[in-house]
Write a structure and sequence with these properties.
It is built from 17 helices and 20 strands. It is an alpha/beta fold and 536 residues long. Helix 1 runs parallel beside helix 15 and helix 15 runs parallel beside helix 17. It is globular and about 75 Å long. The structure holds ligand NA7. GO terms for molecular function: monooxygenase activity.
Length: 536
């Protein structure tokens, strides 16, 4: 048994920064990481076209002025290899690797109420005893392989986008089938199509995708932004999306615009690309009427791009509001369907019956291909936490406690699980906002709380039941006022059969969330029970 002050699970962007903070606090710490390198999401998701949908200069750490000045992002939106290179640079620059245990999977964590310690067990047999346990396990880190009959019979290669081979895959001369048209599908389809002999896309739900208009970073723009980095980062911290790229103050209401003004606004936001199309409109996610008008503009773009009208119609999303499933940000996605070597199968109209030895059978046809790509998503937000056997007070299992849906306080702590913190857990706004800024905010808040506990000789920090219930209520009441609840999305756990349908993220924006957290800290953490030696 190895003793530590802090054990962190996961060496993605949250875990790395958490480690840096704990190192600075002079506490003993180990990060336990399943992969053989840092980067988390960006370590695993190596599929062709994998790219961040937040602009790179914003999707990067802000905690070190030197780091943000010295790092050069070559493109407006960084591709996965570039982000992974950045993660490795950060690990080296801040000497993080000395405290990271790679290729080790945590299987169990149990709280000892007598000793006030967590015991953390790993697959390799190494066991740690720690005062604080911090789960930086990611919100989209447990890939979902769909329950398709016959999947094990398929004679060709099966690849999941989130488990892509490190050496890459050469599809030249190969026929490929792909299931899934969320972000991973939308990003990989254009690249696979360029390489494969033929690509068949199996689409269940058409999603809304806005072009990224990605391109090389312009030197003047980079220099200008770096000059103003401090102010831009500050603006991000007071914005809805935690991102200075979108100007909250310029937000307009679709319903208040004349039809001509709307068209101009939609076209402007379309040309800006990506999430500009979502964050520009104040009523987009609350008014079905406004949303439908914005959705129809996108459908018009799809119809204008895709030459075959039948294919265009299949690609036009019609069964959920724009943005209620996370918007995709693409490079030549719709254009790809004009290629001769790409076919689209609407599996809502013609559902998959089974996977066969040589492909896939839908109700109406047999489809043959050499390789099958699953771009089928993740057991989001709770999957990585419930996969580990986490037991708090009285041996209560987190998985069982959450069987009717997750309950957390601020997405950071769980009642009954003292001295355990979750970064980007359910109840946090992170999946709606700039994830790296969310990581920084969570990490800084947790570090401050640990620092406070250490200074006050507190041995247990635990979220209170009432505070947790109030937060859980607030989450669902806020979400119910929006259109986010109107789709079968992973936000609601709807992509996992049997998962309770509970809206998991906090929707009221980074700025609101951060100020609630700040307020809480400045008032001495009401809502938490702190057991301190001085007070016992
Ligand atoms: P997503 O967004 O969950 O997309 C998964 C896709 O796979 C989606 O089109 C699903 O259709 C489809 N899917 C999942 N299971 C099946 C089955 N059984 N049959 C047919 N189709 C299926 O995951 P991504 O990896 O693309 O993106 C996740 C996040 O990563 C993304 O939101 C960004 O934040 C980055 P459905 O829509 O459920 O009908």
């Amino acid at each position: 048994m190895e003793d530590r002050d802090v054990v962190i699970v996961g060496a993605g962007f949250a875990g790395m920064y958490m480690l840096h903070k704990i190192q600075q606090m002079g506490m003993s710490v180990t990060v336990i990481e399943r992969g053989d390198g840092v980067g988390g999401t960006w370590y695993w998701n190596r599929y062709p076209g994998a790219r961040c949908d937040v602009e790179s200069m914003s999707y990067s750490y802000s905690f070190s002025e030197d780091l943000q000045q010295e790092w050069v992002w070559p493109q407006r939106y960084a591709a996965q290899p570039e982000i992974l290179r950045y993660a490795n640079h950060v690990a080296d620059r801040f000497d993080l690797r000395r405290d990271i245990l790679f290729e080790t999977t945590v299987t169990k964590a149990e709280y000892d109420e007598e000793a006030k310690r967590w015991t953390v067990q790993t697959e390799t047999g190494r066991t740690f005893r720690t005062r604080y346990l911090i789960m930086a396990t990611g919100c989209l880190s447990v890939p979902k392989v769909p329950e398709l009959p016959g999947l094990d019979r398929f004679a060709g290669r099966v690849l999941h986008t989130a488990h892509w081979p490190h050496e890459g895959v050469d599809f030249s001369g190969v026929t490929v089938g792909i299931i899934g048209t969320g972000s991973s599908g939308v990003q990989s389809i254009p690249l696979i199509a360029k390489q494969a002999r033929h690509l068949t896309v199996f689409q269940r739900t058409a999603n809304f995708s806005i072009p990224a208009w990605n391109g090389p970073m312009r030197a003047e723009r980079e220099a200008e932004m770096k000059r103003r980095y401090g102010a831009l980062r500050q603006r991000a911290r007071t914005s809805y999306a935690g991102d200075y790229t979108y100007a909250d103050e310029d937000m307009v209401s679709i319903l208040e615009l004349s039809p001509e003004e709307r068209e101009l606004q939609f076209e402007k936001r379309w040309q800006e690309g990506g999430f500009h199309y979502q964050y520009a409109f104040g009523d987009l996610m609350v008014s079905e009427q406004a949303n439908e008008i914005a959705a129809e503009f996108v459908r018009g773009k799809i119809r204008a791009t895709v030459k075959n009208p039948k294919v265009a119609e299949i690609l036009c999303p019609k069964d959920h509001p724009l943005g209620s499933k996370r918007l995709c940000v693409d490079s030549e996605y719709y254009e790809t369907y004009n290629r001769d070597n790409v076919s689209l199968i609407d599996i809502k109209a013609d559902p998959i019956v089974e996977i066969t030895k040589s492909g896939l059978r839908t109700r109406e046809a047999d489809h043959r291909f050499d390789a099958l790509v699953l771009a089928t998503g993740f057991d989001a937000m709770t999957g990585a936490l419930t996969k580990i056997d986490i037991r708090g007070r009285g041996g209560v299992s987190l998985k069982e406690q959450w069987q009717d849906g997750p309950r957390t306080y601020l997405g950071l702590a769980v009642a009954g699980f003292p001295n355990l913190f979750t970064i980007n857990g359910p109840g946090s706004p992170s999946v709606f906002v700039n994830m790296i800024l969310a990581c920084e905010q969570h990490v800084e808040w947790i570090s401050r709380l640990i620092g406070h506990a250490e200074a006050s000789r507190c041995i247990e920090i635990e979220a209170g039941d009432e505070a947790q219930e109030a937060w859980t209520r607030e989450l669902s009441e806020s979400a119910d006022k929006t259109l986010y609840v109107k789709a079968n999305s992973w936000y609601l756990g709807a992509n996992i059969p049997g998962k309770p349908r509970i809206f998991m993220p906090y929707v009221d924006g980074f700025h609101t969330y951060a100020s609630i957290c700040e307020n809480m800290a400045s008032k001495g953490y009401p809502g938490f029970q702190l057991s301190c030696l001085d007070r016992l």
